[in-house]
Write a structure and sequence with these properties.
By secondary structure, the chain is α+β, with helices and mostly antiparallel strands. It has a single domain (56-259), classed as Fumarylacetoacetase-like, C-terminal domain (Fumarylacetoacetate hydrolase, domain 2). It has seven helices and 13 strands. The protein has helices spanning 3-19, 26-29, 35-51, 66-72, 123-128, 151-156, 204-216; strands spanning 56-62, 78-83, 87-88, 93-94, 102-112, 130-141, 161-166, 182-187, 190-196, 227-232, 237-238, 244-249, 253-259. Strands 1, 2, 3, 5, 6, 7, 10 and 11 form an eight-stranded mixed β-sheet that branches. The protein has a five-stranded mixed β-sheet with strand order 4-13-12-8-9, with no helix packed on it. Helix 1 crosses helix 3. It is globular.
Length: 260
C-alpha cells in the first residue's frame, strides 16, 4: 500500500475519533490491505494523537479470548497503544459523548517495574518484571461502522481501543494464580459475563509475553512504569448512558465504572 494512502487512512481514523463518528470498513474499500499496512495506518493515527498532546502510558493486547474471537470473527491477537487521554479513575463517570459504539471488557492489567523487550521473553520474565496486577475495564470502541471489522480494520484503528479504567488495588502477581482466578462482570447489578485468567491466550502472562516478543521484532519495548492490558476474559458487553458496571477478579480485586 502506498505511503500516501496509509497516511490518508490514518488521518481519516483520527478524524473519526475526534468527531465520534464511524467510517466504512477499510477492508471493504481496500480488499488488498495487509496486516503490515494496518499497523502502518495505526502508526499514523497514533502520530496524530501524540501531536495533539497525548502521551503513551502503556499497550494493550486485543482479541485474546475465544469468546471475543467468535464475536468479532477475528482469530488472532493484535496490539494497540494506551495514552493518558484514555484513562479514567475507578468509579469515575465516562461521558458517552466521547464514545461511538462502546463495549466493556473485564481484564487483568499488568504494571511493569522493569522494561521487557523481545524476542525471547517468557511468561516467567513477565512476572519477574511486573510490579503488580489489577482488575480493570477496557472500553473498546470501534471507529469502523457497525463493528464490521476484519483483523486489518481493528489493527488500523489502534486495536479498537476507546478508554480504560484501572482498579484501586495493586496485587503482587506471585500472590495469586493468574490462570485460574475467576472473573465476574456485573451490569446494573446483574451478572452478564464470567471468565477466568486462562481465557487470555491460556494465561495472562503468556499474552504479555506474546506482546513483548511481537513488539520486540519491531524494535519497540514494554517500558518500565507502563500499564499493559492483557486481554478480555469473557465476552464484550455493550454499554449505554446510565449503565453501571463492576468487574471482580478473584484474589486481585474489583473495578467499577459508570456511563453518563
Amino acid at each position: 500500500m502506498q505511503a500516501q494512502l496509509i497516511e490518508q487512512l490514518g488521518t481519516e481514523l483520527y478524524q473519526a475519533l475526534v468527531d465520534a463518528k464511524t467510517v466504512r470498513p477499510l477492508t471493504e474499500r481496500h480488499p488488498d490491505i495487509s496486516i503490515e499496512d494496518a499497523y502502518q495506518i495505526q502508526k499514523q493515527l497514533m502520530k496524530l494523537r501524540l501531536a495533539a498532546g497525548e502521551r503513551v502510558i502503556g499497550k494493550k493486547i486485543g482479541v485474546t479470548s475465544k469468546a471475543v474471537m467468535n464475536m468479532l470473527g477475528v482469530y488472532q491477537p493484535d496490539f494497540g497503544y494506551l495514552t493518558d487521554g484514555m484513562v479514567y479513575n475507578e468509579g469515575q463517570a465516562i461521558p458517552m459523548s466521547r464514545l461511538i459504539q462502546p463495549k466493556a471488557e473485564g481484564e487483568i492489567a499488568f504494571v511493569l517495574k522493569k522494561t521487557l523487550k523481545g524476542p525471547g521473553i517468557s511468561s516467567a520474565d513477565v512476572l519477574a518484571a511486573t510490579e503488580g496486577v489489577m482488575a480493570c475495564f477496557e472500553i473498546v470502541d470501534s471507529r469502523i461502522h457497525d463493528w464490521k471489522i476484519k483483523i486489518q480494520d481493528t489493527v488500523a484503528d489502534n486495536a479498537s481501543c476507546g478508554v480504560f479504567v484501572l482498579g484501586d488495588r495493586l496485587v503482587d502477581p506471585r500472590d495469586v494464580d493468574l490462570n485460574t482466578c475467576g472473573m465476574v462482570l456485573e451490569k446494573n447489578g446483574d451478572i452478564v459475563a464470567t471468565g477466568a485468567g486462562a481465557a487470555a491466550l491460556g494465561a495472562p502472562a503468556n499474552a504479555v509475553a506474546w506482546l513483548a516478543n511481537t513488539l520486540g521484532r519491531l524494535g519497540i519495548a514494554l517500558e518500565a512504569g507502563e500499564v499493559v492490558m492483557s486481554g478480555s476474559l469473557a465476552i464484550m458487553v455493550p454499554v449505554a448512558a446510565g449503565d453501571n458496571l463492576r468487574v471482580t477478579i478473584g484474589g486481585i480485586g474489583s473495578c467499577s465504572v459508570r456511563f453518563v
